[in-house]
Structures are given as structure tokens and as C-alpha cells.
Amino acid sequence: MNEQTDLLRIEGLSVSFPLWGGSIHAVKNISMRIRPGKVTALVGESGSGKSVLGRAVMGIETPAAQTSGHIYFNDPDTKERIDLLALPNEGRKMRSIRGNRIGMIFQEPMTSFSPMHTVGNQIEEVLKIHTVLSPKERQERCEEMLSLVGFSNPARAFNMYPFELSGGMRQRAMIAMALVCGPSLLIADEPTTALDVTIQAQILKLLRDLQSRLGMAMLLITHDLGVVASMADEVVVVYRGEVMEAGPVDAIFRNARHPYTKGLMAAVPDFEMPRSARLKPLREIEVDAVGLVDRKKHAEAHSDVVLSVRNVSKSFVTKRGGGFGLGASPSTLAVNDVSFDIRRGETLGLVGESGCGKTTLSKILMRGVTADAGEVSFQSERGPIDVLNARGEDLNLLRQRIQMVFQDPISSLSPRMTVRNIVSEPLEIHQRGDAKARLDAVKRLIRAIGLPENAMGRYPHSFSGGQRQRIGIARALALGPDLLICDEPVSALDVSIQAQILNLMKDLKKDLGLTYLFISHNLAVVNYMADRVAVMYAGRIVEIAPCDLIMRNPVHPYTKKLLAAVPTPNLDRPLDFAAIGQPSAEARKQWARQFQEDAPGDLAHADLGEGHLVLARRNVDVRELRP
Amino acid sequence: MTTKPGTDGDVLPHYVREAPFDPYADDAASGSSTLDEASQLKLMWWRFRRHKLALFSGIALLIMYFMIVIVEFLAPYKVHTRNMDHIFAPPQSVHLFHDGQFVGPFVYGQKMTLDMTTLRRVYSEDTGEVQKLRFFCRGEPYRFWGLVDANLHLVCPAENGHFFLLGTDRLGRDIFSRILYGARISLTIGLLGVATSFVLGIVIGGLAGYWGGWFDLVVQRIIEMLQSIPTIPLWLALAAIMPVDWSPLLVYLGITFILGLLDWTGLARAVRSKLLALREEDYVLAAQLMGAKSPRIIGRHLVPGFMSHLIASATLTIPSMILGETTLSFLGLGLRPPITSWGVLLTEARSVSVLALYPWLLLPVIPVIFVILAFNFLGDGLRDAADPYK
Amino acid sequence: MREMIRYIAWRFMVMIPTLLLISMLIFTIIELPPGDFFESYVEELKAIGEKADMQEIEDLKARYGFDQPMPIRYLNWVGGMLHGDFGYSFEYRMPVSDVVGDRLWLTILVSTVTIILTWLLAFPIGIYSATHQYSWGDYGLTLFGLIGLAVPNFVLALILMYLANIWFGTSIGHLMDQKYLSQPMSWEKFKSILEHIWIPVIIIGTAGTAGMVRRVRANLLDELHKQYVMTARAKGLHPFKVLMKYPFRMSLNFFISDIGSILPAVISGAEITAVVLSLETTGPMLIRALQAQDMYLAGSFLMFLAFLTVVGVLVSDIALAILDPRIRLRGGSTK
């Protein structure tokens, strides 16, 4: 038998944890393999046991974990075949493999580094453990590695502390650390889940490049089949600790047979989908908004524009990078001269990477943050309200007409209140009806988001992330608002749950005649939801247009980049790494001349017709913008 | 059944699991268990309950606090009863058998002789004299809570006999009874002191955390300042302010106030930092954006959020209060006789020469240690339970 | 580096208002008791049938501005302290600095030795407890520590004295042989101090060590569950080295910032213990001064002690800034 061809063979691996007397079986009898120089993707929802498997291979699961089975590692360097599970966890042999022959990167780039040591120190340490290089050689190797993962000044990066780097750069440093010994296998545990799509694309490109360049194999653990399509050679789909389907990437994507795999695939929003098509989540929710429909009546009656935003700006005083707060601190423009309208009944998508100012903007609209300048006008049934300066009755009315759905499903619900109290809180604040009427209203809302009535007596801790998000939506709907501001409502969720929430929101909008401002960093999600899309970059809206138009025919280079960065579960439409591999700030320098800003005031919105506006130089000819 | 990962080196065969598949198996919405409907308070209780030592300590403390209500009934003697013929009598042990015969709990009589060379009183057990203890008996009359005349005791010495479980002091007062009476002062002073610092801590720390700005800055500086002065010298200085002619009650309240006055800083800090953390939570922001007014946000969201933590940390500061009282009284700057607290009792043991002869004078320290340990365990348990989602 | 110097300068500047506030508080406290030293002094003399030298008293009163309003007296006191004049002890009829003399240094000596001992003990015990969580060793050490916390300092002193009395028949106490008391520092005197100092150090240090072990354990346990520990293990680092380089390094910061809380506690403990053991430190004198309303002596004592802790906290803050890059480079709090 040809023993040496598989790099890693996992046979009958089971992992369980003792819990409250019983035990939880996180991984049940899984077998899989990783071939040298190839990428195997391990796909599943959160809680499917895929990360446990990754940690078990490294032998860094908690000592409480009970494992059985075999993990054979065929080291191509030594030609040895070792059962990793049979080795003592902290023994010399296991440690000589860990970090040396097998590297690992984690989901959270923010917490994976010690804040007390420099990046260089932490990377160099790996070499110190596994090689006999001199300190000077070690530093050279580290800097080489840092430049390989995209640090333009590796010598400087070597001496920086992790907290001085952005999330994306930290993940790059993490990769450098995992690869500095030249392992033959890299375990990447959700390496991009905590990142924006644009940065995700950069990191994926980097991983792909390094993987082929260094000839190493990779175990890519992810919940996003879109990522898998662009990266993997072989795919293993797990659900509740068991393999549902496994095979070469072609077979999985072109001929998925297991309902779970099909479900995961159907849940990823895709640009090729017809606009009227509907995502099919694994678990569909029955929306029953019948009881809420009466709220629809006051819509339509008034002016077409619900919210009109004009020239809003907001700057923050930033803490200086290396200061103790003495001396003048510069301020950055988080929101820079932003104007747009939201029409009644439409969904306006607001897209941009983190830090572009979209959350600040949403908080300004909710009166959570005060703007420096600009005007926002809300069209209520009592006439227009000046949002930024409203007080008393007007503000009270605003607080009922505009509601917010938050990103974090855990932090947005008070752990001390039952679902019933959470959903009825807005009714209590605005003294709607008596206790009985409020209870009826809560019942209707709970039905509307597809939860059983017994959910009312339960506490948030007993719900999953997606269910919590639905409760958040019910709370936002309680007062029968006109406008819902949704700040990344699905970014913290698995792709499979994401589709469910998106469908729910679509259905509710249709049934209740709502208006959405839908904020996201993922253009595919916005494409699925929005009628019009505004793209935001560095505090400004760089392009705004009807959804069809912007998706078919984007004009601004940043929009194009965002479009290219979205991973889809389609082998024929892989990520275009050439277009998206650079950090946005770098890519900006290569934008065409007509989009560049040399001095403040250079840029203005050029009208391309059909409501399509692009931020470009003032004097530029509209035809020049079309490629 | 085992999945086959494919033969080595071959193209991976397309494997599909045949077993039935239920996408809703993970969905918690389907079932409803007691855990789901448990309030946070219930979760905390469940978690606290697992902490056996804390649970036991809590129960022990409850019993002790109940005991101080009925001290008059429990103590065989009154707090100031002097037995002039039993000065510095050593502890008597309780026996059950006399001459191999069961007689029930009793003590032997004590015979005192004066050692003329050392001028010491020497007590010896008179094994001939069996003094049977009486239970639920009529004994020394007292005024219950200074209101009702009564003479019922849990245990009394035999008629014309004596019962000094822990010995007597230089005035022949029963130390066991005095410890029981002392508990009344020592245990409540910790509680009242914490109540004082609790109120101060919540109000000041809460305002600092909620308002922020200059108020926060000033409060922070004041806290820093108070924390950098060593507590005991400051207590001493403050205690020295109290005029000698104050009534016992005033002194008691004064000491309580002093202890609380210097202790609030830790709690205020805890409240402030917890508030700042809570304000970052989306659900608080959500309430604000829904139009909730400050009282509602504070009452419904912030206070419940930090209360459990606060109670836990307050519990952990009670020991330092009790220690503080004991220390101050011991140094003669705290409570003074006729008030009887554990600290006051310990002043009797102040000099080593006395201690060497009458070591039982140090016995009041045992309840001090016990109570402090119990509060520490209880506080640890509460703190662990305070955040059931951790 | 420039940032560092700026930070230290800023930290020094913050210290000044803190000390000023403390001095005001202390002055208020020692002024609060009704009456003054002279009243009780005259009363005392009257009680034993003697007449006080009223002229001398009037002189002293005038000299120390007892007829002046409180703010003026406060300014005089603070102004004097800036010149090294700490006022006059009425009871000893000597300038405060002469009365205090050695005692202050001995207080500092006892406190420093105690803190060092506390660290030396608390570090390894805390690490052991955290890494062997829920083992018998952990339980034993935790219980031992709790008992250490629960026994009041003065009781510990009494027990030690009692045991010494029973076992050796000698009385322990004092910081040195009495014959060296007023002598200048010499080798013999130093040796005598060393012979005596361990008892107060044990007594004062017990509670501090116990408290610190608990805090180190809790802190280390928090750190042990952080993601970066798993990263370090994934590198193949030896578990012990992982522990020492990462979580331990993190809790070192916590340790240093803990000086701020341990120093006042140690000084408090030292004062009490000093009374019981009749040590030649500031403790007994402070209490006597407070009782006799010898206000300058008491006030200056309190001020010394507060100054000690403020400086201790300053040193710990600066050390922390040097050790913690997050403070050094961002000036932010570490949380």
C-alpha cells in the first residue's frame, strides 16, 4: 500500500467534553484526509465541531477533552508516519511538530497575539523553538516572512506591537508566524470570519499565494461555502460532528447530493441570481404578520421621501498614535459631506468596509451621535421633522418612527429580561395601550418573526444567534415604525442563518410596507436586499445608484473592488484575486485619475442619469467615467 | 458507520451520508426546558448552589445573624454579670458520664485556691461535685431587647453552680456570654458600615459613571487620594475626633460611619467601571434610541446589570469592616466599655503577661476568624455566580 | 523615549494636587477634635495639683498661631513642611523631625522588607495555585491564605508573642536591643535590627501575602484562558515556557500596579503590629499623639505615611509604563 501519499489521515476521530455530569460529543467518528500541497476545506455551521477537530490535530484542545481514533501525519521531510493522537500532548515529539511541521492560525486576530511582546518577538520565538539559527538569522527569516505576507516595511513591523496593527495586518502577521518554519500543513481556523469582505479577499489571496508558493497543504475551516469555492481542492461538510458529504471540490459544487450541502450552498447570496429569486435557507421561517398589517395604513399617504440627508459631516478627535494625550490631537472626518434620500417603501443599501463611517452615519440618523454639520429631515405624518435638532414631542415621535436593528445579537438584548419584556419595552416607553393590549401586541410580534408563543417567557440565553436577531427585529417593529435602520444585522451570523434573517426582513418589509436603511460590508447581501445602493469609502459616498445599475455597471473603482471581493459558491465565478488583493489604501493610489482627490473640494458627485451618481473630479466629463 | 477518507493518493470518492438528516436538530426553539425559562436570578442561584463552601458559609452566617436577635435567651449569663469568686476561671469542659454512668451534660464544680507564692488563683476541678446543666430553664432575669422582662435561657448552670464554657475574665464575667453579646455589635457594625459605603459607592460611583465629564474626574482624584492614605492610621485619626463623653450609641454609630466613610472608594470604582462597560452594551443603546428616559435606563438596565457584582464585592468588604472595628477597639480608639464587641473583649488580652497566664482571654478571636472566613467564602461564591453567562 | 519622559513628568505633576488634597484632609481631621493640646495639658496638670507655666503656653500658642484662623495655620503648616520644618511636638517639647528621627526610617525598612517578602512568597504560590486549579495543593494553599487574611494582625502578634513566651520563655518585641535605641547606626545595631525584624515582617506580611496570592491566582487564571496562550501552545512552546513568557508576564503588570493597594495595607498593618510589639516605629507614637491631640506630630506622621504611599504608587505607575507597551505607546489604560 502506498503509505506516504496522504499528508494527514484522520481515522475515526471522536472528541467529547465532560459537561454537567454528561458529555458533549463535539466530533463523532470523523475520517478525512489532507493531501500534500492541497487545500482541504472543512465546512459547517458554528457548533458543528469543525474547530474542535482543528485543535485536536494540533493537540491543543483543553486537557478535559477526551479523544479517540487516529490522526496519522506523514511528514514529507522525515518520511515518518506518526499517530499524533498517540503522542503525549505536551511531549517533546508533539511539540516538535506543532508550530514547526503544522502551523495554525485562528479566527480572532485581535486576541491571538500577546499585547506585551512585539510582533517580531512572537514570530521569532517559533524559530527559536524549532531551529538552531542565530538571533541575526532568525530576524532575517522573520523579516523575509513579514515581507512575504505583505508588510511593506518588515523591519519596522518586526518591532511593532500587535495593537499598533489593524485587524487585517494582524492576521497577516499571524500567518507569518504560522508559516515561518515552513510547515507542510497549515490549519486555518475561520481565518477571515472576523474580517470585512474586502480584507477577507486580501487574506484569502495571501493564503492561496503562499500555499502554492511554499507547496504546503492547508486545512481551511470555514462556514462560508463561497470562500471554499475559490480556495479548496477537496471539501468535507460536517454537521453536528459528523461528515455529511465529502469529495473533490468539483463533485461538491457541481453535484451536491446531501440536502445539508445543498442547503448551505443555496443560502449564499449570489450576483447571478435573478433579482426576484429567493434564497433558500436551511431552516425557513413562517412569517405571520397578519396581526401587524393594520400598521401599514398610514404609509403611502405622504411625500415620497421619508428621510433626506444633506451635507452631514462628523469628525472625531483621534487619540494620537504615540502620545499620552498631551498636545493637539488631529481629528479625522468619519462622515464627510454625505447626502442622500431614502424613499418610502424602498431599501437603501449602504456598503463599505469597516471604518468607512457607515455606523457613525447610522448613529447620527438615530440621534445617538451629534453631527458637526448638515441637515436631516424626516417626513412624518405631522409634516417634516428636523432630525438633528428635534426636541420634546418631535424627538419622541422620531423615536417611534425610526428604529434600529443591531449587529451583535448577544449584546443587543438585555440578559435580564424575558423576551416578552424585551419586545414590549418600546410599547411601555411610549405608553401604548394597557398591559393586555401590550401583551397581545407582543404575541403578534413573536408570531411575526416565526417564534413559538412559549418563547415569550424565556430569556435570551436560551436562543441561538439567529433567533436573538429575530427578537431584536420584533422589538424594532413593536412601535410600527416607518424606517428601520439595520446596522450589519447579519454580519455576526453564519451564512446559513444569514439567509433566514434576510428572507424574514424581506417578508416583513413587503407585508408591513417598511422602509429600510440596510448597512453591510458585503455587496452580495446588499444586492439581495436593496433597491438602491450607496457605496461609502473614507467617510464619503463614492457611488450611489439603483441596485441593478450598480451591480451590472459599476463605475467607481472602489465599488468594483467591493463587487469582486464577494465570494460565491460558484466554481465558475472564483474570486478575482488580482483585482482585490491589495489593501484599500494602497489600491486607492491606482484609481484612475478622474477619481483622485489632490486637494479638498476637488471631488463632486457626477450625475450619470437614472439616479446614478459617482464621486469624481468636478470638471470631468460624464462620458469619461464610463470605462 | 465510518466514512472512508479514500484510499491514499487516489482521487477522493464522492461520499454522501445516507442517514436521515434533520436541519432543525440544533434549533433550540423546538424544546422548552427549565433552563430556558430560568431568569438570571435563578441561573445565579443554580451556580451559587454548586459552590458548596459558599452555600454553607451563607447558611452559617444566616444562623449567626438570627442568633444575635435572641442573645439574651442563648447566653447563660448577662453581659456584665460579675462572679467575684470566679475571677480568671479557666474554661470548664462539659461531661456526659460521671463514674461510668450517663448523667447528661454537666460540669464539675471548680475549687479555687490562692497560690501564696505567685499570688495566682489556681482553679481545680472538683470531680465530686456534679453540676448538671439545665436547658430551657429559668435563670438570671434580663430585659429582652431592653423591653420585656424575662428569665428564660437556653442553658443555665445548676442551682448555686457555675457554667463557664470559655472561662471568665478579670471581673469574673463569663466570656462565652460576652462573646454572644459582642456578636450583636461586631456583626451589625460590619453590616451597617457596608450599607453606608454601599449607598455612598452607588451614588458617587454611579453619578461619576453616568455623567462622566468633570464630575467623574474630580471623583476619580478623590478616590485616588483616599485610597493612598493608609486606612488604619486614618481610622485612628477619625476615631480620635469622637469626644470621650459621647454616649455608647453615638460612638457605635460614629465608628460605623467612619468605617463606611473610607470604604466606599472601592465600591464606587466598581460601580463606575461596570457602568462604563454596561453603557457600551447595545441593549442600553437600544433603550436610549427607543426613547427611554434616564430613570428607566438606570432602573431597568444599568442597576440590574451591576447589582449582582456590587453585592458580591460588598460582601467581600464586610470582613475588613469587622477587622477594622476589632482593631480600633483593641487599640482603645474604637468602642469602649460598657459597649461589648469582640474587639473590646480582646483588649483584655492586650498584654502578653496576662495572656501567658490566662490564654482563654484570646478565645473571642475565634468567632472573628470564623465570620471573616465565612464572609470571604460567601463573597467568592456570590462573585462567581454574579455573571452566570461567563 | 521622549513620550516616556513626558509621561513621567505628567505623573509627577498629578502627584502635587493629590498631596495637597491629602494635606488638607489631614489638617482638617487633626483640627476637628474639640479643644486643643494645651487645654487638656492644663487640665491634666490641674488634676495632679500643679500649675502650668501659662507664660510658656501662651508663647507656644502665639508662635504656632493658635489665635489665627484655620486656613492661615494650614498654610503655615504646609509651608513649613516644604522647608523641612514639620512643626513642634508639644508633648515632647521638641521639633517633630527630632521626635520622629529614626522611627520613620524604621517604618520604611519594615514596610519594604515586608513587601519584598510578600512578593517572594506570593508569586510562586499564586502560580502554583493557578496552574494546579482545584488540586489539593490549591485548596490547601487557598484555605491557608484565607486564614492568613482572617486573623487580625494584632492577634497574630499576640499569638506569636504568647508562643514565644511559652516555648522560649522570652518576650519578643521591639525592633532592636534597647541599648542601641539612641545610638547612631552601626554594624552591631544593624545586626540587632535584623535579629528582631523578622517577627513583625511575618506578622504584617501574612495578610498581604494571602491577599496577593488570591489576586495573582485569579488574575493568572483569567490570563490562562486567553486566545494568545493557545497561540503560544500552537507554536510548540513548552507549557512551562508558555506560562512564564505570556500569562505570567501579563500578571507581572498587575503585580506592579498592585503596589498601590498593598502599600497602604502594609503600612496600616505595620502601625498596629508596632503597637502590640512596642516597635520603635511610628505606630505607637502616632496613637499617643492622636490621643493627646499633639496635632503637629500626628499631622506630620499621617502626612509622612500618605507621602510614602503616594510615592509608592508613583513608582509603580512609572514601572508599569516602562513594562507595558500599551501604556508606553498609547497612553491608554490597560484595563
Automatic annotation (TrEMBL), chain A:
The principal localisation class reads membrane
Top-level taxon in the UniProt lineage? Bacteria
Alphabetic keyword roster: ATP-binding, Nucleotide-binding, Transport
Q: Which residues form the ABC transporter domain?
A: 8-265, 307-563
Q: Which SUPFAM superfamilies match?
A: P-loop containing nucleoside triphosphate hydrolases
Give the matching Pfam families: ABC_tran, oligo_HPY
Q: Which NCBIfam families match?
A: PRK10419.1 (NF007739), PRK11308.1 (NF008453)
Would you tell me the protein name for this molecule? Answer: ABC transporter ATP-binding protein
According to its UniProt entry, this protein's organism is Rhizobium lemnae
Q: What is the lineage of its organism?
A: Bacteria, Pseudomonadati, Pseudomonadota, Alphaproteobacteria, Hyphomicrobiales
TrEMBL record, chain B:
- Kindly report the protein's main subcellular placement as a broad class: membrane
Q: According to the lineage, what is the superkingdom?
A: Bacteria
The similarity comment for this entry is: Belongs to the binding-protein-dependent transport system permease family.
Its subcellular locations are: Cell membrane
Per the record, membrane topology reads:
Multi-pass membrane protein
Protein name, please? ABC transporter permease
Q: Which InterPro entries match?
A: MetI-like, MetI-like_sf, OppC_N
Could you tell me which Pfam families the record lists for this protein? BPD_transp_1, OppC_N
What keywords sit in the KW lines? Answer: Membrane, Transmembrane, Transmembrane helix, Transport
Report the PANTHER family cross-referenced here.
OLIGOPEPTIDE ABC TRANSPORTER, PERMEASE PROTEIN, OPPC IN A BINDING PROTEIN-DEPENDENT TRANSPORT SYSTEM
TrEMBL record, chain C:
What residue stretches are annotated with the ABC transmembrane type-1 domain? 104-314
Q: Where are the transmembrane segments?
A: 12-30, 104-127, 139-168, 197-216, 254-277, 297-323
Localization, UniProt: Cell membrane
Question: Which Pfam family is an annotated match for this chain, by its short name?
Answer: BPD_transp_1
Swiss-Prot/TrEMBL keywords: Cell membrane, Membrane, Transmembrane, Transmembrane helix, Transport
InterPro entries for the chain: BPD_transp_1_N, MetI-like, MetI-like_sf
Just give the chief location class: membrane
* Any single biological process term in GO: transmembrane transport
What kind of membrane protein is this, topologically? Multi-pass membrane protein
A cellular component annotation (GO) from this entry: plasma membrane
Q: Could you tell me which PROSITE patterns the record lists for this protein?
A: ABC_TM1
Q: Which top-rank group of organisms is this from?
A: Bacteria
What family, per the record? Answer: Belongs to the binding-protein-dependent transport system permease family.
UniProt name for this protein: Peptide/nickel transport system permease protein
